[in-house]
Amino acid sequence: MLCCLTQAGAFHDGGVGNCDGCHTIHNSEGGMSVAASPGHWLLKGIDPGSICLNCHAGLGSQSQPNVASADGSALTPGGDFYWLTKTFSWQSGTSVGSSHGHNIVALDYGFSADGLLLQAPGGTYMSADLTCTSCHDPHGRARGAGVGGNLPISGSGSYGSNPSPLTRFGTYRLLGSIGYNGGSHVQGYFFNNPAPVASQNEAVPFGESDASHVAYGSGMSEWCINCHTGFDTGMGGMGGGGGGGGMHHKAGNNVHLTPQRISNYNAYVRTGDLSGSATTSYLQFVPFEQGVTDASLLDPTSTQGPNSSSNVMCITCHRAHASAFRAMGRWDFDTTLLADSHPAVTDAGVSGSDILYSYYDRNISAEFGLGQKQFCEKCHGTTGP
User: Fold this and answer.
1) Cα–Cα distance, 313 to 336 (Å, whole number)
2) What burial letters (b/e) apply to 101-119, b meaning 16+ CB within 10 Å?
3) pTM of the model
4) N or C: which end of the chain has fewer CB within 10 A?
5) Cβ neighbours of residue 275 under 8 Å, at least 6 residues apart?
6) How far apart are CA 327 and CA 156, in angstroms?
7) What are the CA-CA distances from residue 15 to residues 19, 154, 328, 359 (Å)?
8) Of 135, 354, 327, whose CA–CA distance to 226 is shortest?
9) Tell me: the pLDDT tens digits for 49-60?
């Protein structure tokens, strides 16, 4: 694992990377056997997702790029694919693991395609093709380099900051940009929208808290519709209807928070407590975009709340990878009081620290009170729409 982490570090720091971190020159190098098909590009694993998890699976997340833990402890901004393996049942319901996130294909690690949703909601991207490289370009070819480039060029720009000397600026988290093919294993699929503008605190590059988090600038929702195309109505933001089915919360660069929403967000501390201040109102469970296109203007350590340039995005309410809750929710969408969230202590399927990790190591009942309602209130207040 240390070998892999060292190689991954060189890759993300903008160097040429170690090709043999992912590829084997000979079919059984190091005792590793890969599929004989040329379509597997001599990868050190059965599929691209497994290659990524060779270095990005493990315990914890604060200092290592882990996105698939064995216990829910990878408290990364995108979430932990661990939750795909967890189904919780109680007397009146069930929360199925496959509903907790993007069902990536990484067979070496036990992750397989979604058996219910055969393609992206609102789009045509096939679930059987969904893997880490569907969203992340493993070679970091982006922003000025063209999708045909060969060398990893993300530099420190992988976290959204300025690149290191002698490196070229890539995209946040190596996300595929305009022209990206959704993974080389997918034929005829190309992204139409650029990668989002965002910045992560490089001191804690894989953690998330109110005071150290991803600062989102713009373009997150637009990037999501590279695959979820039906959620783009072209009228005031994503999610007004269309191929996603039914009506949905609008999101996007044009969906600016109204003065009332801004006031609600900045004053809201918890249900029944509106004593907050704009300078300390940021809540990790309800992030927002700041409406800027220059990553150098973003401060991922700021606790400042939104202003008139800020807007709603898809991941204001959802996580990009997976969460403990249905629909990748940042909180449990299916309960009135968050104290009644599932997983709960009496649920079948609960183990270890599932309950605490579901809310990112924060005891919701103790911190917010037993009367805490859904975090929709952060923007909408307690009086409805």
Assistant:
1) 23
2) bbbbbbeebebbbbeeeee
3) 0.88
4) C
5) 267, 269
6) 31
7) 11, 9, 34, 36
8) 135
9) 998 998 899 876
Helix locations, 225-347, DSSP H: 259-267
Report how far residue 215's alpha carbon sits from residue 133's, in angstroms, rounded to the nearest whole number: 23
pLDDT digits (tens, 9 = 90+) for 96-105: 999 999 999 9
CB 77 within 8 A of CB 61: no
Instruction: DSSP letter for 367, please.
Output: H
Give me the amino acid identity at 229: T
Q: Do the beta carbons of residue 43 and residue 138 sit within 8 Å?
A: no
Q: What radius of gyration do the chain's Cα atoms show?
A: 20
Can you name the residues that pair with 122 across neighbouring β-strands?
Answer: none
241: left (phi over 0), alpha (psi -120 to 50) or beta: left
- Residue 213 structure tokens: 């988090």
Residue 182 CB partners (closer than 8 Å, separation 6+)? 125, 129, 134, 176, 189, 190, 191, 226, 227
Task: DSSP letter for 269, please.
Answer: S
What's 33-56 look like in SS3? CCCCCHHHCCECCCCHHHHHHHHH
**pLDDT of 10 higher than 50:** no
55: amino acid identity, one letter? C
Contact 290, 216 (CB under 8 A): yes
Q: What is the pLDDT of residues 73-87, one digit of tens each?
A: 999 999 999 999 999
Per the model's pLDDT, the better-predicted residue between 42 and 343 turns out to be 343
> CA-CA-CA-CA torsion for 284, 288, 291, 293, nearest 10 degrees?
50
Structure tokens at 70: 């064995």
The three-class DSSP label of residue 62 is coil
